[in-house]
Amino acid sequence: MQRKIFITFVALILIGVLTTGFLTLSLLRGNYIENVKEKLISNSKLIRDFLSRYDGLDISELDNLALDFSKKVNARVTFINEEGQVIGDSAKDLDELNNHKYRPEIQRAYKGEIGVSERYSDSLKRSMFYVAIPFEKENEAISVIRLSVALEDISKSNKVLFEYIIVSICAGLLVALILGFRYVRKVTDPIKELTIATKSISNGNYGKRVYYNTDDELGILANNFNIMSQKLEENINEIQDRSTKNKAILTSMINGVIALDNNKRIMFINPAAEKIFGIKEENAKDKFILEVIRNNNLDEQIHRLIKENESSKNEIEIFEPQNRILNIYSNPIKLLDNPNRKIGVVILIQDITEIRKLERMRKDFVANVSHELKTPLTSIKGFVETLKSGAAEKKEVRDKFIDIIDIETGRLTTLIQDLLVLSEIENKHNMVNKVKIDVTKSIEEVIEVLDGIANKENITIEKKISTDLPIIHGNKTWFKQMVINLVDNGIKYTPEGGKVKVSSCVENKNIVIKIKDTGIGIDKEHLTRLFERFYRVDKARSRRVGGTGLGLAIVKHIIIAFNGKIDVKSEVNEGTEFIVKIPID
Length: 585
Fold this sequence. Notes:
By secondary structure, the protein is α+β, with helices and mostly antiparallel strands. It folds into 4 domains: 153 residues, 2-Layer Sandwich (Beta-Lactamase); 99 residues, Beta-Lactamase (2-Layer Sandwich); 71 residues, Helix Hairpins; 150 residues, 2-Layer Sandwich (Heat Shock Protein 90), CATH 3.30.565.10.
């Protein structure tokens, strides 16, 4: 520190020497300028007095007159009219001179004052000192008389003194620069390195270090900086790692997550929430929740949470972009180190649309099964009681009732079998008993079985089965059950004399099976619900032909198990066509 203080002291001495030298030079120059000024003013007045004695000065002679005066007073002489034009000058041709009206010394002279100015002359290409006085004689072209001299004409004694002072100043400056340069480099180099390092850290390079090993304050500062940089790097890496993990967890959640600040503006929204509400985070961020999700129940729940600072749960229904039923769980976001401070709200969105749909379907299923079982059981019970009450004594009545009981029992058996098949298909997440299926042969076998039933009803089964259909893998029993249900369905709902056409081919890597009948057809309003359990277009006819209402539901689930699709086309009184597409393995 002593060395630093000494160098600072030397620098202060140099500053003092420089200041003294420049003040001396300034004083000498000031005295010289003042002498020149007084001389020019005096000579200007003499010229004015001389010109005042003459009337009607010839403008053409003013140039020569200025030259004569210039030789006598050893200065440049210029005559200027009231418009600022030079009408006489001892140093330059008039054509080469610009208008002088707005020169500062001329402006003062126009006001009746003595104008003084020091500046660089564009016409003479040197620094000049100007003095201008007004010439107020009436009917004369001259308005201003101006004298000027070059500032270069300093006396020899002043020049010698000036040179000595300059040499002294230069010597002092040289010494100061040599000493100062070494000092400045020693002090500023580590500071520059620190500056570069801090800038690098501000740009994200937290591993930047400064290498400056000294025992002074700068060395201590550099060491502390390196310790700070290391800790900062460790903390930032830990924060980034934690943030990345948290974001990955939130992004991977199947439930929607939305984080809001205390003003109900969106801070974060995960992909699941984006999908539920049909929005994108970049379009929703920093917007009010009600701007993005227009649901008053949700807004009220958030408002209540912010006000009461308590967790809540609510069930809401949204209609855009799709009808959905949602469970909304909301919790305040609190800081770990300050639980009393709340910085926002986190909302967990659980889509329970399918759950509610399944609950409704379960209720409908139970109700339908109960109804379907109740009808034949009631019928059986009624006929049994009738037989027990004495009707059994008559053979014709007894046989009739027994036949009816047999039919109803058959219906019950068929219903229970269909329920078991449907339950088996639905509960198998993966298809069981997979074997190679010869599609052509399987369809032929089904037609052979059902052909007799069709003939009894005077219905013709036409077939157009491709013989080169590829082999697929799956549950053969399920596959044949699917074909049986579709062909049997066509037979049941086709009047006598009608036809059921069965065809198959390969299209776009799919096996396509078509079952088309010439039956009663189906209204378009029923097509969307055709594959629901127990859904019947004509309940009375369906029961009359022995339908359980589960056949097409079984078909749909079997096709799904084969990763296929089914479409239906129908026109009332013209017939119905089912189109099954099963992908080739």
